[in-house]
Specification:
11 strands; four-stranded mixed β-sheet; alpha+beta; elongated; 5 helices
Length: 150
């Protein structure tokens, strides 16, 4: 699963070697506490071996008509990037917002997810900026187990 590596230098990378996947329990505990999952230089180096740098270090949008011509969508969707962009465009989705977490003093990792494939709004997004899975609707029981609810 792809993840985002955000460096203190303001560089942001999409990686296929997310440190979170190798440290899932530790990362989950950090996020449960609403902390970032900070990573060391070795983890950064390993993650960047199979990564692509985002062209911007702030939130932006990628037009679906550019899928297949864009390094991020090529990396994320591979050989089907252009066809996927055409499909999205055909159903009325004109762009993919890319949202990032705020800058920190240390390098950290976040998993990314695609959200909001919504024909009525004409949008969907690549999210790496929110630490929760819609945390306003997640609740913990007495055993610290997550349940979905209102």
């Amino acid at each position: 699963m792809e993840g985002i590596i955000r460096l203190p230098s303001e560089e942001i990378y999409l990686t296929k070697k997310s440190p979170i996947m190798e440290n899932a329990e530790e990362a989950s505990e950090c996020h449960r506490k609403r902390d970032e999952f900070y990573i060391n230089d070795e983890q950064v180096s390993k993650a960047l071996k199979d990564a692509v740098k985002f062209p911007k270090n702030s939130n932006y949008e990628i037009p679906t008509s550019e899928f297949g011509n864009d390094a991020i969508t090529d990396f994320a969707f591979g050989k089907i990037a252009k066809d996927y962009g055409k499909f999205l465009k055909d159903v009325g989705i004109g762009e993919m917002p890319v949202l990032f977490a705020n800058l920190e003093d240390e390098a950290f990792a976040r998993q990314v997810w695609f959200s909001c494939l919504d024909r009525s709004s004409g949008r969907f997004g690549l999210y790496g900026g929110n630490s929760g899975l819609d945390s306003s609707r997640l609740h913990y029981n007495d055993d610290n187990m997550v349940r979905w609810g209102t």
